[in-house]
Amino acid sequence: MSSPDDIAKALGAAIGNNDDESTVTHFLDTGFPPLNFALSSNWDKGLPVGRIVEIAGPPSSGKTAIATRAMAACQAQGGVAGFMDHERSFSVRLAPQLGLDVTPGRFVFKKPRTFEESVAIFHKAVETIRSKKLIPADAPICWVFDSLAAMVPQSVIFDSKGKERSAEDRNMNDNTALARATSAHFPSIAMIAEEYNVCVIFLNQLRTKIGVMFGDPRKTTGGDSAAYYFSQRIWLGASQIKKGTDVIGTEVTGKLVKNKVARPFLDAKWRFMFQPDGTGRFDAERSLIDFLEQEGRLEKASRAGFVMWDGKQVSRDNLADLIRAEGAAGFDKLKALLPPSYEPEVVAFVEGVTEEEAEAQATAA
After folding, report:
1. Residues of 281-304 as b/e, b for ≥16 C-beta within 10 angstroms?
2. Strand pairing partners for 14?
3. What is the pLDDT of residues 91-115, one digit of tens each?
4. Cα separation of 129 and 321, whole Å?
5. Mean pLDDT value across the chain
6. Is 227 exposed, middle or buried (0-12, 13-18, 19+ CB in 10 A)?
7. Four-CA torsion 38, 44, 50, 55, nearest 10 degrees
8. Which of 254, 258, 220, 257 is nearest to 237 (CA)?
9. Half-sphere exposure in the Cβ direction for 327 (13 Å, CA)
10. 290 in the Ramachandran plot: left (φ > 0), alpha (ψ -120 to 50) or beta?
11. How many Å apart are CA 33 and CA 295, to the nearest integer?
12. Percentage of residues in the chain having pLDDT higher than 90
């Protein structure tokens, strides 16, 4: 009987040596340490490069803001970012407020008509970047599709002869066209992401399953194939933040319903605030203050809504303004309070039991 070394030599001569495993070596900082931790088990990392990620949630929950932060982080590492605007709603003019460099060559912006055209542009762009060595080999690429639900398969628009179909020509088969398109193309997208070192982000919409009485009734568009190829799925939920009767923002909870990079099922909370120009701002400063206070890393003051900072009682809002005014140096002061070793609380939920009921049971126990 041959030894393992002899077998390895024989197979190596016939089919080559074993391939390297697919591991993530680059991450894109979201700008919010608790979200980074939920994604990568590290305060400073975040979204994985070389994988496909889904960010799904209701309107005005900050999906595009997270993706824009990821694109900016990619550029900061010497990479190129791309955005496929299927929803026709991305503001190139306002994106720099989130740190994105929209200079052509640093940023690619396209409005494809079909799913297939979008994937073809993505593949050609990243292949060109890598084959022509336009950026350093270790620099990442970040490519965002907004959104999967808005990507129209070619078969819905054109018939088999390439003629544009009218609304009267469409039928029930078109309702499953997107699932067929993802089934056909997502395997190659996953391969391209890994081979060309791309963080591929699909924004998506959350829908509610009709008639579901137990468990999570939410689902996303794109079919089962898309869900299978996502390495991470971040589902967002949002509740309104009001000032008087005015809605000034949302408190967002992001849950990792799937994570093949780090521990799954963690979550993070942050504030997404609306601006006068119609945009939204990821309020990382105030959100991190809330997290640090909750974790006991920031001392509560005797006055409600206040914390201790530099020996003084400061309201959480005023402290956030102070940190924001100091820029990166101020935010680093907050980050320095994060625990070097952190183990999130594990809460087991029984299917069919609400979160409130589970908390009540845990308290009673």
Report:
1. bbbbbbbbbbbbbeeeebeebeee
2. none
3. 898 899 889 999 999 999 999 999 9
4. 40
5. 90
6. middle
7. 40
8. 254
9. 1
10. alpha
11. 13
12. 72
Q: d(Cα 287, Cα 34) in Å, to the nearest integer?
A: 9
Structure tokens at 37: 């931790």
Question: What are the structure tokens assigned to 264, written together?
Answer: 């799954």
Task: Kindly state the DSSP code that residue 163 receives in the 8-state scheme.
Answer: P
What whole-number distance in Å separates Cα of residue 99 and Cα of residue 106?
Answer: 12
Farthest-apart Cα atoms in the chain, separation: 80
**203 strand-pairing partners:** 55
Radius of gyration of the chain (CA): 23
Quickly state the pLDDT bin for 216 (edges 50, 70, 90). Answer: confident
Please give the model's pTM, rounded to 2 decimal places: 0.90
Residue 48: its H or E element: strand 47-48
Tokens read off for 152 = 């129209």
Cβ pair 332, 324 in contact under 8 A = no
- The helix/strand count (H/E) of the chain reads as 11, 14
List, in sequence order, the alpha helices (H) in the chain. Answer: 4-15, 33-40, 63-76, 115-131, 154-157, 177-195, 223-229, 284-294, 316-326, 328-335, 355-364
Percent of the chain with pLDDT over 70: 94
* Single-letter amino acid, residue 360: A
DSSP letter at 158?
B
How far apart are alpha carbons 28 and 17 in whole angstroms? 32
Tokens of 57: 């949630």
**Per-residue pLDDT tens over the stretch 242-299:** 989 999 999 999 999 999 999 999 999 999 998 887 777 889 999 999 999 999 999 9
Task: Give the DSSP per-residue string, 337-361.
Answer: TS-SS--PPP----TT--HHHHHHH
pLDDT at residue 356, rounded to an integer: 52
pLDDT of residue 211: 77
What is the pLDDT averaged over residues 348-365? 48
Residue 308, beta-bridge partner list: 313
